[in-house]
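Structure tokens please, single chain.
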Amino acid sequence: MPLSKRRPFKRPRHVPATDYEVVIVGAGAAGLSAALTLGRCRRRVLLCDGGRTRNFPSPAVHNFLSRDGIKPQELLRISHEQLDAYPTVEQRQNCVSEARKDDETGTFHLTLDSGRQLTTRKIILATGVMDILPTIEGMHELWGRGVLHCPYCHGYEVCDQPVAVYGNDKSVAGFALLISRWSKDVAVCTDGWTKMSDHARHRLKRHGISIHEQPIQQLVGRQNKQLRCIEFADGSKLSRYALFIHPTQKQRSDLADQLGCRRLQRSGAVWVDKRVQTSVVGVYAAGDTTPAAQQALVAAAEGAQAGISCNEQLTREECA
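Here you go.
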């Protein structure tokens, strides 16, 4: 028998009437994965796609089982296409600008940037983060190719090449030692920061990692946006193939704050429990929004967990 395209269950009378059962905010790997899970649960879902994902400048997604090396846009295209098979999932090119919880009913009222207002029983925040890069000439232009964030995503592509690690706090030494797994020619560039501890200096020296403390003037790239060299303010140059950096980040959306979700003080990430529910009942979070490792595969896994958690909680409420 062909699968029915109609939703098979009637809403129990004790369950509040809403436009959707789940609204997913953000359509990267986390949001798409959550939508797929909930679509397969035949839940009435709205997936709000806010535009370009964080990995848009990258030439490929790596360390993603069965999709290693795929272009980010192609991964999204396939995911959206596969969601079309699930009639209860609605996909919209919209951002959610406002969100509040109705404490009396436990439901949520949302406003889209189009002005449309709607209600939902659960929310999944998959809005991600924004990278705040240093104001160094060439840094933004080379981001995603010559300037890299994650060695697990891009380290293999630059292995055995001369690379640099940027940082102006105590974490830079550990980051450089991690990068030395992929290259034995690693240099640390602190951009004028000179307060590295003697212990950290000794560790770097022992592993053959040089330290360059002078301020950086600019990054010089090639036509393919690969890094050519780092130019310092004193006129010296350092030839490098890539620069790794852990940039400052901020949440792409303030919806978690609007809803009163707890955030971690140090990273600003939205706190979640083992079922990826936030501190606000009915609000879940997945992907780079949370403290988990920032990789597409991890985001997709968190999205699936969020979908499962939503479905199971909705079922408990319906079967009370």
